[in-house]
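Input/output pair, single chain:
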Amino acid sequence: MIRARFYGAAVLGTCVTLAACGDRGAFDPDSPYAPGVARNEQAVDATLVGHRLMHAGEYELAIDAFERAAVTHGLTSDILLGIGSASLGLGRLQTAERLLRQALDQDERSPEIWNNLGVVLMELGETSEASQSFQRAYALDDGASDSIRDNLRFALEKLENPEYNEDNDQNYKLVRRGSSDYLIRQIP
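Output:
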């Protein structure tokens, strides 16, 4: 009798669990669980996935996503910007600089690329060139981005006073194309 109740409860629990998994392709924004595979839907663009991973601080995964996007779209300036910014987040400064300069070769009118290159140059100690990058970014952005303005202000202050360090608590701000910006913290 007890065994029958146990099996009955187990079967009921399994049925309830499977019923909850009914619509695997549906996305519930209030659910803490990832949605299932929507086999009849089109895949999310890997560039968008890369930007979301950057925002989450998952730089290695972001690089993988941007590399997948490069297979589909080619090495566009946006993809080079994403990989370069993720490389900066991982502390790979020379790689980040090289990729951001390649992105500038394709799109020299992008304030995001100029800003992020300025962040790399600041990390490398090239304050003069970094301030020029921030000035260019600020001009191309028409002064609309607070992040770019703050980076420019810090670079100019550091240029005027090389000992200026704001207690080694300066936050550099990476900017991406779209509505979000990244924040890269200087590691003491």
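The chain has one domain: 44-185. The radius of gyration is 23 Å.
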